Amino acid sequence: MSLLPPGFDELERFEGWILASEKERHARRYDSSMDEIRDFYNAIKPKREAIVEYLNQFPMDELPADANRLFMMGLSFMEVSIAVEFFGRQQPVEGYDVDQMVAIE
Amino acid sequence: MKTVMADKRWCKKYPHVGTGPVSTEPNISPDLYELEKEKVFRKCWLNVGRVDQLPNPGDYFVADIEVCSVSILLTRGRDGTIRAFHNVCSHRSNRLVWDKSGCDSTSTCGFHCWVYDSDGKLRSITDESNFHDPDKKALGLTPIHLEEWLGFLFINLDPNPEQTLYEYLGGVVEELKGANFDPFKRVFSYEVNEKANWKTALSAQNELYHVPFQHHATIPDFAVKKDERYVRLQDVRFHGKHSIYSSEAPGGLPVPTLGSQGEEVRLPLIGDFDFYTIFPNFALLIIRGEQADSFIVYNFWPAGVGASKWDIGFYFVPPKNVGERLALEYAKCLTRDVLQEDVVAHEQVQAGLASRAKPHFQFQDEEIQIRHFHKVWEETCGVSL
Q: Using CB atoms, which residue from B193, B333, B334 is nearest to A100?
């Protein structure tokens, strides 16, 4: 089985954004350069509707493994969207400690 | 009800709240912190969670109230009743339950294996025949007063609370009469350990005046109408120790469209965004959504005069498909980042307060609810600063 569902192969180079927890996605956003973040954001953005349409064909709790990886990539896209669309940098406030606000998952 | 865009409306409506400067001492004084422990946290009703944390018989969770050196075990018994106990074994006062939450019909002390039922009764004493006629009926867990309001669980550490929870909440009960919070699930939770007094953190949330400035990158116009420069609240209401401020949201709030396939899921709202401060440290934020409303809960727990733990819970109608779940993630990440902007500010304010450069807060009319909060705090502590 390939990493991502058919039709989404070109997103496989963003494998590093397939992350299960908010803590991991949030940390990766902070640890990436804005160039890396924009590259990922710009690649996913035009495919948003196609991704949602593809994933919505499955019941939420029964995503096949490749679809689940696409879903996790989608969650990472939402995470970085805030950095790109609102702040133009990784963190909301310069010098903010990423570990201070702990997501209880 | 429309927002009136005039200046100084609330001080005329609520003259008893006053207009003078307010002392910063409660946020920095070690002596007042000690007083606050006894007069506020050991006397007032404190929210410690919601019934949805205990859906089934045997479910339990632990709430540690560090400021009072108390650990509380909340359980749902086999009879379906929710109870609260000191999380302390009757034998030699060991901490009974060490997990944060779980499901078990009994709790066993790790020290000498004394076993308790989920209704608090002592079930068995290890090597009982070698004790000196222990009265097992009297050796159950020590109960703590627990009452529920609309699914919110409140405890009171006073052995003889002066008021029932409903008496304590007063007019707030009427404001939310008939509200059904059950369709909403706690989808996201955060814990923030801050170098800020709990009142510094709470007060920063208890107004919208700061939003266009501190949150200029994220939600600058959420509460400001087009062609207006400053926030004007839609309504401010006081009920005993508690307050509500309410705002329209002309600029919109980061809430996803959920429940698109079902019926509307509504909560009582005065405006588009209602902020309830339930004294002392609980805030309930009700937010209008397109199809389904949502709510957020905050608990601000003292951890020293200059430190606190801010517990945050986001409640939404559960998403029905992956698309809704992704929309929810976006809204959550944006809201979380707005709150991160706040956290940084809480700590900077606390540092400024601790420097004692300024003996007073200066509150404007749209901050009257913070003024009210400080007045209530002083009255509750029996001080006039």
A: B193
